Amino acid sequence: MTRILIVEDEQHIADGLRFNLEAEGYEAVVARDGEQALELLLKERTAFEVVVLDVMLPGKDGFTVAAELRAAGQFVPILMLTARGRPEDVLRGFESGADDYLPKPFELAILMARLRGLQRRRRWNERDVEVPESTPETYSFEGRTLDFGAMEVRAHGKSYRLTQMECDLLKYLVRNAGQAVSRGTILEDVWGLHESTDTRAIDNFIVRLRRYLEDRPASPKILLTVRGVGYKFVSQEALKSS
Question: Do 144 and 193 belong together in one domain?
Fold first, then answer.
């Protein structure tokens, strides 16, 4: 039976979620605050397939809990559940390591659809298979491999796990290699956010991706800044000719 962790301090919401999840055939466990969730996931190593994580928690908020899980190497899919639906909050959630974001109030059918999507993604990521180099899900160049199916970058003899937001951004830049992509285009076409959203979060994502890809992140040759526009991924052919 699939086990879901609900991290929610409002009892009526937590009880309602647990009741509905159990009615759908899931095993649901409730944590009342961030500390209890971290105890279950990091210290007790309890296995969960998805975490439904409220942002507004006593003590450590949901952003902090997500960030600590990712920093500890725990990549269980996280669905952030919150009354805060501003684009800036959505970006902060994804920067913290969340995989999806659902504002309150929500319809149960939408919640279930999001959970099933996260389950499918996790099962794909955990498959012990090699993705053929010829598939569009894999892009190799200059000793680096971008594996979009497994959501990871292999470079410098290391593997780096990507969040969904990082994966979507990098895949979009690769598909548009050689072209300058504006920050507004990234917000709207890649992440589905309004162009007026604060774009500084994009810059933070680019900084992280450069750490994975570049030999010298401070002097990038692969992910370039196009002044006054946005960013550009340099194609393999352009790298070879440079």
Answer: yes
pTM: 0.67
- Joined together, the tokens standing for residue 231 give 């960013």
Counting Cα atoms < 13 Å in the Cβ hemisphere of 191 gives 32
The predicted-structure confidence for 175-208, as pLDDT tens digits, reads as follows 899 999 998 888 888 877 666 565 677 888 898 8
Sheet strands side by side (includes 144-147): 138-141, 144-147, 152-155, 158-161
Q: Which residues, at least 6 apart from 49, have a Cβ–Cβ distance to it below 8 Å?
A: 2, 3, 4, 76, 77, 119, 122
Rounded Cα–Cα distance for residues 138 and 135 (Å): 6
* Burial call 1-13: b when 16+ CB within 10 Å, e when fewer: eeebbbbbbeeeb
Find the domain containing 110 and state its range: 3-125
173 phi, psi to nearest 5 deg: -65, -40
Number of Cβ atoms within 10 Å of the Cβ of 132? 8
Domain edge (last residue) among 97, 125, 153? 125
Would you say 98 and 80 are in contact if contact means Cβ atoms under 8 Å apart?
Answer: yes
